[in-house]
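Notes to self, Alpha-1,3-mannosyl-glycoprotein 2-beta-N-acetylglucosaminyltransferase:
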Amino acid sequence: MAKFFCDFRFLLLIAAGAFIYIQMRLFATQSEYSDRLAVAVESENHCTNQLRLLIDQISMQQERIVSLEDERNRREQECGQLKALVQDLERKGVQRLIDKVQAPVAAVVVMACNRADYLERTIKSILKYQTSVASKYPLFVSQDGPDPNVKRKALSYDQVSYMQHLDYERVETERPGELIAYYKIARHYKWALDELFYKHNFSRVIILEDDMEIAPDFFSYFEAAADLLDKDRSIMAVSSWNDNGQKQFVHDPYALYRSDFFPGLGWMLARNTWDELSPKLTENHKGRQFIRPEVCRTYNFGEHGSSMGQFFKQYLEPIKLNDVLVDWKSRDLSYLMEENYVKYFADIVKKAKPLHGRDLVLKASNIGGDVRVKYEDQRDFERIASEFGWSTKNSLQRSSCFPLPKIKTNIPCWSKFPRTTRDRRFLTQFKNS
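result:
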């Protein structure tokens, strides 16, 4: 019995020893696995961080890819437009218009954007008088932007050569609150004039907008004026517009004047002048002047546009469009040359009946000829002009004005009033009685 208990305790000791050994092995194994698990967790965290960095990099690359795809699409669109333009020019045989036998008087370009209905009205008005002199005045439409209706309308006329300006650059205005549209128009003007003067090699360009109708003698007027522009470098441009050309103020379709202010709204520029203006789009007229008619050779019907129709009813709608077919080539325009005009205009002012005091409009209506009114300063000038209803607003800047925003100038887009050339103490009203 005692031997049995002795053997049993021995077995218990062996079992206890085995148990303790197993527990120690289990603890060691558990510690080892815990260390491995900690290392695994740390590795997983590191992998997670690396994955996040990769995801961020992939995201940035995807944005870059999208940007590159957009750029590629724009490039493809531009290439497509250029290809279409080349095909259109080849189809219409522009080179035949610019032959060596007779150089054109001027290219005529209609500046358009997104008003297809206006453009159609303008083109029809031009073709009414341009068809018979097409070789002298090749007709272009320059579209700013991708409006499909405008492009379709321009390409529907075989007599028209089409150009398209695609501008994706961001516009930064010089002053807060300025209309971005005017800056984009300025870019379009520069691009179109560069194309016509330097790519197509025209010596002169007549600029119109897509909301204009022209007079029957429009082309005759500019052909005669081209001679003046070539001979007299003191003339900066020739305009078909008179800011104060409302029906109640004009009557003589043969009268032309030199102006210190740029009227715009249908005007012709020579290449040598554009050579000076194009590089930096900065401009000072340097004492040069502009030729304009008393009765407008263009009519602006664009109530809706970049200028948002401001002053349209008051100043633009009542404009008289000339309806007399004047043969300008047969007329002697030498009086408009700089050396002759000072005396010519001074004689007109000298012969005009002077008006003084109050009720100037009433007094002028009782005089059967030209009148002149002396004013003391700018305020006095504006007061007198307002009595007669003449435009004195510098704010009447339109998209057709040149120069446009970012083109420094001291030439108001709308002339304030017909003044004498050298003596600004007088202003003259040419009456229709």
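- The chain is about 45% helix and 15% strand.
- Confidence is low (pLDDT under 50) at residues 394-433.
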